[in-house]
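STRUCTURE REQUEST FORM
Protein name: Monooxygenase FAD-binding protein
Source organism: Stackebrandtia nassauensis
Requested output: structure tokens
Priority: standard
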Amino acid sequence: MPHERVLISGAGIAGITLAHWLHHHGFSPTVVERAPAPRAGGYKVDIRGAALSVVERMGLTDAIRAACTDIQGGSVVTASGKRVASMDGDSFGGREHEDSELPRGELGRLLYEATEKKADFRFGDSITALDQTGDDVEVTFASGTTERFDLVVGADGLHSATRALAFGPEDQYVRDLGYYVSVYTVPNHLNLDREELTYVGPGRTALMYSTAGDPNARAMFLWSSPSLEYDRGDANAQRELLRSAYADEGWEVPTLLEAAETTPDFYFDTLSQVHMDHWFTGKVALVGDAAHCASAASGQGTSLALVGGYVLAGELSRAKDPTAAFAAYEQRMRGFAETNQALGPANIKRMVLRGKGQIRVAMTMLALMSRMPGKERMMARVAATIHKAATAIDLPDYEAAD
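Status: completed
Returned output:
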């Protein structure tokens, strides 16, 4: 299907990766993104397993290594700031082999710079309607224009508008894991130097870390909660929910909450997953979080996005029609996605502890383990589980349509 016009909704990791590889295979990709410019900021993300092969084939390995967080160590702290347990950065982050960790905004920048001349990027716009009654897809945009494309791919995340238009309401597919997450930039008032500190309270976890080359730091909050009623477009209401959840917590939490008022990149959402029977309908398909969000707790959302974009473009280059391509893409990716989704619920229970008794036991065990010989081998077992999931796919070497 050379030179097919493909519209991609979302200029995140999955969307840009897909655009890059579609162009590589001879397609004409257009990327529409609601944000006015490529998104900066965000939490640190990991590239593991099969995703490392994707960025290597894009020629980005060296640039990604240069942008790594270079976090040297991590510690669990008490309410008074005492370090209970400490270990090296890779062990603390569950990394092994050639895994790379870098800020999400930096990865997005590198992908965009490698792709911006290979696709038609349209920022500040979004899809409002899809019509598949003809031989192609008629797309209506928020800007008021209407255009026709051969294929449309939703790469617009957990709350995908494309998925809602093509498949139905969000509540049919999004499963709340019972936790909330908030991430944003904060002043580095502790003068951390490539270090991560984690505080654990009953049902509440807060952490702060600094990365190489960034004078600021970032804070992350993870907490268990019944479903909350709030407007996803109202950041002030979200800040109030965050303050309420952590009102009685110690450590540096009050200072970090104050920074939420003026931070330029406040993020707040549920920890949720997406589960769907099919990732395509007609000439519309989904990729990345829109299709199979594993949640931030899995640590594998970025790798799934990179691999998904690569595989979808590759299968489109091989097939004679989009239905066959979409089916082959889903068949190849589904097991990989489900294996990595399984990490989320298991990981979050280790990240957010329910009661004071569980916290005391966990802190005692961590303190003992951090002083024991061979602690790296014990932590490596956790990393091995993640690595197994990160490599649970046979990644083809698709030939370019030159």
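Reviewer notes: DSSP finds 14 helices and 18 strands in the chain. The chain has two domains: 5-70+93-174+275-346+386-390, 175-271+354-369.
Form closed.
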